[in-house]
Amino acid sequence: MSTPRTSSISPDVRLPGTARLGLARTSLELLTFVRERDAMIFIFAYPLIMMAIFATVFDGQVAGPPDSGVSFAQYFVAGIAATGIMLTSFQTLATSIAVERDDGTLRRLRTTPLPPTAYFLGKVGQVMVVTVVQMAALIALATTAFDVPLPDEPGDWLTFGWVLVLGTATGTVLGVAFSSVPRSGRSATAVVAPLVLVLQFISGVFFPFYQLPGWMQDVASVFPLKWMAQGLRSVFLPDEAAALEVGGAWDNGVTAAVLGAWLVVGLLVGVRTFRWRRRDDG
């Protein structure tokens, strides 16, 4: 990250502040996202399709004891929301940044006066906007098509907000850090997608978490996706449903601690390993 930059901009010309450049970069990232229609459709459609499939297949069934009153649609909406956040932040950035490094985009950006911070702010802004729209569409589908009740307590919406923001931030910095793992842009999807898919299966996204083997629960508890799903279940499920969790409680404090720890790890690793050039560029 210490590669020297050259620019023909006169030293007397003052550039806009980093925050303003970050907003401009966010607009550019969103425009690029919209132009990539296949990727955009997949990111928005995937959670909706998964929600529709699972809610339809398990229609009329309850999650947990028969007297729990928690439908499968109500239980799964939290896991689907969590995987949507992970898809939009971690998977998308880990793949797209690897591609930008491979095709020389990052190398060219590094020779411009654009501060690196503004580039990353643009990525964060784009991910946050897309995630909010994605969550709004998912909640609208769940409530209108599958009768999933919305939370009626302000505290639940506050929990939804901080899990969304902290989960998105964590997925974003981990995506930036992991983008240095694929050896090329062509191999990025093959490296990133299987990892995300495995985490989905062991983190209570496609199956009730309490039904998974104990060793699988222990492995999933190390990673942030399980905690995002659990934090969101505390929003969409009644208080009594906490008994369905492995520890018998929502443990939102643990959720915040685990997500915060992964955020710090992602920042530290990303700062040390992020590369603006391909490996063969030196």
UniProtKB/TrEMBL annotation:
Coiled coil: none
InterPro entries: ABC2_TM, ABC2_TM_bact-type, ABC_2_transport, Nod_factor_ABC_transporter
Keyword terms, alphabetized: Antibiotic resistance, Membrane, Transmembrane, Transmembrane helix
Domain ABC transmembrane type-2: 38-277
Localization per record: Membrane
One GO MF term: ABC-type transporter activity
Pfam families in alphabetical order: ABC2_membrane_3
Listed transmembrane segments: 39-58, 73-99, 120-145, 157-178, 190-210, 254-274
GO CC, any one term: ATP-binding cassette (ABC) transporter complex
Membrane topology: Multi-pass membrane protein
Domain of life: Bacteria
Protein name: ABC-2 type transport system permease protein
Any one biological process term the GO annotation gives: response to antibiotic
Principal cellular location given in the protein's record: membrane
Entry annotated with the keyword Membrane: yes
